[in-house]
Amino acid sequence: MTDRKILLIGTAAAIGVLAGGALFLTMRPGDDQFAQCSSSSVAGGMDAFGTPFTLTRDDGQRVTDQDVFDKPTLLYFGYTFCPDVCPLDSARNAEAEALLTEAGEDVQTVFVTVDPRRDTPKVLADYTELFSDRMIGLTGSDEEIAAVNKGWRNYFKLNDEEDQEYYLVDHMTNTYLVMPGGKTVEFFSRETTPEQIAETVACYADASA
């Protein structure tokens, strides 16, 4: 297959607002154990994505990245007040997880807030419960959330200059596949279907077995 570049632009969660930041993609060389699972990778490699962290889970417990990524995980950054994009993406990810569970794969979904001021553990627990009992919500201090978003190159911006209560947040909308141990191996755009995600995740899970 010939090399090509794809420009992936994360859309904003706020209606009509385009999130800043874009990922330039190139074809993945077939030189690793996951080569057969995906035809694309981020320029510079997926190894550049991810960071160690300690955050607060939706049950109030402090957890590390090693605690969280103990199985193949669909990782998404959003916020519970999001009017449209986040619920749709969360539902899509939960559907992919359900397809994988039905196929016998042990996977999970994780929702990291970009709005820790409003997204307390209780708020996150109520939100994630709407989509899947296997979806984990994570929050933290402003500094912790900024650091984990930076680790996954996730742009976000709170539009709270005039309204401190009902503001919207611009953010990218990629979903990342993180394998046990915290290695990020793949990402999915908003256009990827649950079936496509499930097929890709199953390939990675089988290749790592």
From TrEMBL:
<keyword id="KW-0812">Transmembrane</keyword>
<comment type="similarity">
    <text>Belongs to the SCO1/2 family.</text>
</comment>
<feature type="disulfide bond" description="Redox-active">
    <location>
        <begin position="82"/>
        <end position="86"/>
    </location>
</feature>
<dbReference type="InterPro" id="IPR036249">
    <property type="entry name" value="Thioredoxin-like_sf"/>
</dbReference>
<protein>
    <submittedName>
        <fullName>SCO family protein</fullName>
    </submittedName>
</protein>
<keyword id="KW-0479">Metal-binding</keyword>
<keyword id="KW-1015">Disulfide bond</keyword>
<feature type="binding site">
    <location>
        <position position="171"/>
    </location>
    <ligand>
        <name>Cu cation</name>
    </ligand>
</feature>
<feature type="binding site">
    <location>
        <position position="86"/>
    </location>
    <ligand>
        <name>Cu cation</name>
    </ligand>
</feature>
<dbReference type="GO" id="GO:0046872">
    <property type="term" value="F:metal ion binding"/>
</dbReference>
<feature type="transmembrane region" description="Helical">
    <location>
        <begin position="6"/>
        <end position="25"/>
    </location>
</feature>
<keyword id="KW-0186">Copper</keyword>
<dbReference type="Pfam" id="PF02630">
    <property type="entry name" value="SCO1-SenC"/>
</dbReference>
<dbReference type="InterPro" id="IPR003782">
    <property type="entry name" value="SCO1/SenC"/>
</dbReference>
<keyword id="KW-1133">Transmembrane helix</keyword>
<keyword id="KW-0472">Membrane</keyword>
<feature type="binding site">
    <location>
        <position position="82"/>
    </location>
    <ligand>
        <name>Cu cation</name>
    </ligand>
</feature>
